[in-house]
Each structure stands twice: as structure tokens, then as C-alpha cells.
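Archive entry. Fields below.
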Amino acid sequence: MRSAARRLFAELGYDKTTIRAIGREAGVDAALVHHFFGTKEQVFVAAMELPFEPSAVIPEILAGPRDELAERVVRLFLSVWRNPEGRAPILAILRSATTNERAAAMFREFIAAAMLSRLADALGLTRLRVEAAAAQLVGVVLVRYVIGVEPLASASEEQIVRLVTPVLEYYFSAEDHVAVTHRESASPDRR
Amino acid sequence: MRSAARRLFAELGYDKTTIRAIGREAGVDAALVHHFFGTKEQVFVAAMELPFEPSAVIPEILAGPRDELAERVVRLFLSVWRNPEGRAPILAILRSATTNERAAAMFREFIAAAMLSRLADALGLTRLRVEAAAAQLVGVVLVRYVIGVEPLASASEEQIVRLVTPVLEYYFSAEDHVAVTHRESASPDRR
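PREDICTED_STRUCTURE:
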């Protein structure tokens, strides 16, 4: 069932694939797909062996005070990438996205539907700001884990949280509030 | 000569490869390699068909007022990635770095020696901050050009410059520069 789902997602993209079509492709009833995996998003997560599930991650991000939102996102993101087994499937998709426009489209549609739009809506931010924040995080793990440049490769997660949180605070603040504030300078008593 | 250089860089990494060894591998005199390409860095740029040459780019970054440094870097970086022919070789290296530790090591050593250390030294910044800034830029072009997520994929370069420059300003400010940054961030007339 997973390989049938992978084939369909790769062929049709995320948006156009339905649970019904995955059932047909796998030769089983759509209800069975739904029973085993849940929503289309959960089928995708299972098929791609992603180390996180947006429907679980997003409520976790949104829970808790807004002024700690940026830090929560940074910590959660780093924790997903910490584990080599968790990184592998995301890197595999990223790699195929660099050569294959279909793979890129599939990933893009999933990310947009499952993460970016929901976060932007829930936080009242433009998609552009949410994407720029995501770009900062993706860049950090790329430099840290794929290229492996020191000292970022062996910096502690705490160091990275301190360094990067002010950037996400900037992106998550309203459009017309521009300068990035040093976290330490904003509230010296915090952390 | 280029393929001999590519073979050696891939095998030995950037740091351990010498012009002499490239000459030997190509069956020509080292002086000829030097005559045709210049420094080891220039051999690497030519062999990998990189769309930029650090020895030319860095002086361009350092020239001009410091308070426009962040914006200069963002504009320069976007201009390198603007062209699909320029992106292809960098993406090829990035792709192989996701599967192959040797390719990652080669790229990492080149980036560290040719760009990061020089910039950190010239600007009096820690390597960590320079790398976090680089991570922001790499993330943006990855989301924009590889995954192709909208609206970042079709945002104008001016929009991206406006959005991302404050982040690089933050990273490029000195570690203990906290009070000044705080004051600056409070002044609403600063872009």
C-alpha cells in the first residue's frame, strides 16, 4: 500500500492524489487505506517515512505563549533533524527535488498544504514570512548536517536556538516591525 | 585538465589537493596548470564550473560602507542564483553532498577556506554567525529555486532583499554589540 501511495504521489503530485486512487492503485478498498493510515496527509507521511506529522506538529507549535513561538519552532525543528534516521527520508526527497521537477512538485504541494498555509493562517502571517523562516531553518540543517561545516556542525542545539530564535521572532512579527532584535538585548533576564 | 582536477578534488578533498598533484594527474607541468587557471581556488572554480569566484566576490562584498554590507551580500547572492546555468553546478555539488561524504567534505573545505574564514576574519565576526547568515541565504534559494514554493518562488529580488537584509544585519553585528542593536532596532526610521 505504501509503494502504491509513493507511486501515485510521485506521478500526480500531492494535491491531485486521493485516498480513493491510492486504494485503487493498491487493489484495496479506500476505506481500508483510511483505516490503516488515516488522512491523505498521514498516508503521505507513512509512505515517505517522514519523521514528523504536520497534524501533530502544528498544534504543538501553536500551543503555548506567542512570545515563545519562535523558540518552540526552532527547538522542534532541530529535534526532528537530530536523528540520522529521521533526516534520511527528508534528504532523499530533497535530493530528488534537485533533479526531478515532479518530485519537487510533490514535496512543494505537501509542504504548502500541510505546513505553510496552516501556519500562516493560524499565526496571521503572510506565507512569504513563514517561508523565509522555514528557509532559515532548512539552511541551518543543510549547512550543519549535509555540508557539515564547522563550527555549525558541532554547535550545541542551545547555541543554535540562541542564534536563530531572534530571526524567527523577526519573521513571526507583524510586517511593519522590521529590525531583528538581539534576543539577549530584548530581555536580558530571559534564558 | 579540468577532469583531472575534478577527480583529485573528489578523491583528496579541497585542502589536500595541490596544483602540483593536478598537473601530475593531468600529465602536464604544474606551471601550465597555474598559467591556465591561476590559484588552486581558481582551478576548483573552473573544474566545478562554479558561477562565482570567491577571490573576486569577497573584495566586492567588503568594498563599500559597512552599514550596507548585509544588503550587498543578499543582492550578490541572489544575482549568482538568478541564472539557471549558474545554479546547475552548485546544485550538482549539493546533490552529491547529500549522498556522498567525500563530495560533502570537498565542498565544505572549499567553502570554509575560500569564503567563510575570509569573511569572518575580514568582518571580525565568528564563523558561526557567518555560517548562520549563509544558511539563511542557501535556505532561501533552496525554497525558491529547488522546491519552488510560492510566493517565495516568484517574489521579486527586491522583496527578498527587503525581507532578508535585516537578518543578515543581525548576524553581521558584533556579538557584544547588543546595546547598540537594541537602540537601533527601537528607531522606527531605520529600514
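CURATOR_NOTE: Residues 1-47 of chain B form a domain with the Arc Repressor Mutant, subunit A fold (CATH 1.10.10.60).
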